[in-house]
Amino acid sequence: MTKLEGVLPAIRSMKDFEAALTSDHENIIFLETRLSQVKSLVQYTKQKNKKVFMHVDLIQGLKVDEYGLEYLINDIKVDGIISTRGNVITTAKKHNIVGIQRLFALDSHAINHNLKVCKNIQPDYIEVLPGIIPSILKEINEETGIPVIAGGLIRTKEDVKNTLNSGATAITTSNKELW
C-alpha cells in the first residue's frame, strides 16, 4: 500500500496541476475535475512518476457507481480513491487500490456515525475535515487504528506542524505555499 505522509498537494486548477507536477511530491490529490479531463491528467501525472488519488465525488460527469469506479480503476489506473461514501471505499479496496474515507467532523453525532462506518469498512486512510482540531484527529485515530489525513482550514505552516504533531500522518491542502 502507498504510504501517505507529510503534505499532499490537492489540485483544483490547471495552475495548481503544473505546480504539483514540478514539485518534489510523489502523490497528488485531484479535486473538482471533469470526466473528459481525467484520462489525460492521470496519464501526464504518471509520466512524471507521481501517484494519482482522485476524489471521485467531485468528478463532474462521472456516475460514482460500480461501473464508474471500474473505469477509473481498470482503464484510467488511478492509485487511490477518496470519497465520503463507504461503498465506494469498499470497491476501491476490493480492487487493491488505496481507499480514503473522507469524513466531516461537524458535530459529535456525525463523528460517531462516521467512526462506525470506518470501523466497518476499514479504509486505508481517513481524511478528516476540518483538519485543525487536534483532539478530534487523535480521537479518530485511536478509535479506529486507521491513519488519519487532515484537510480543510489548514492555512499556515504552523497549522501544518500542529496538525502533524497531533497524530495526522498527512495533510491535504490546495494552498501551494504549504506544499
Automatic annotation (TrEMBL):
Keyword vocabulary terms for this entry: Glycerol metabolism, RNA-binding, Transcription, Transcription regulation
UniProt key word Hydrolase: no
Functional summary from the UniProt entry: Regulates expression of the glpD operon. In the presence of glycerol 3-phosphate (G3P) causes antitermination of transcription of glpD at the inverted repeat of the leader region to enhance its transcription. Binds and stabilizes glpD leader mRNA.
Record's protein name: Glycerol uptake operon antiterminator regulatory protein
Tagged with keyword RNA-binding: yes
GO process terms (BP): glycerol metabolic process; positive regulation of DNA-templated transcription
Stored PANTHER family: GLYCEROL UPTAKE OPERON ANTITERMINATOR REGULATORY PROTEIN (PTHR35787)
GO molecular function: RNA binding; transcription antitermination factor activity, RNA binding
